[in-house]
Design a protein that fits this description.
By secondary structure, the protein is mainly alpha-helical. Helix content is 33%, strand content 7%. The chain is built from 4 helices and 2 strands; from the N terminus they run αββααα. The protein has a two-stranded parallel sheet.
Length: 89
């Protein structure tokens, strides 16, 4: 549990530097050493219409060579919100 926390939020002092402690940039401006991000368009929430579209964009923002073994890292509340997404069909 402590190791997982360090990989997420560690400060790099006697532990790994977590990805949340890394400088972020818009994915379109990504450079080596920065963490690319995609905005949902709504502060702290999902878009009101077609919220799952941002997940599709997120999956395909990862280079193909890394996508095959990629995984999502999220808390249970986020996972629950995603599983409740609906579409018209």
């Amino acid at each position: 549990e402590q190791e997982g926390t360090a990989f997420v939020s560690g400060d790099g002092v006697n532990k790994p530097k977590g990805f949340l402690a890394t400088t972020t940039v818009a994915n379109s401006a990504w450079v080596w050493g920065k963490l690319g991000t995609l905005a949902t368009g709504v502060a702290g929430d999902w878009p009101a219409s077609d919220p799952s579209d941002i997940l599709v964009d997120l999956v395909y923002a990862v280079r193909a060579g890394y996508r095959q073994n990629a995984t999502f890292v999220m808390n249970r509340r986020t996972q629950a919100a995603i599983r409740k997404f609906k579409d018209s069909s």
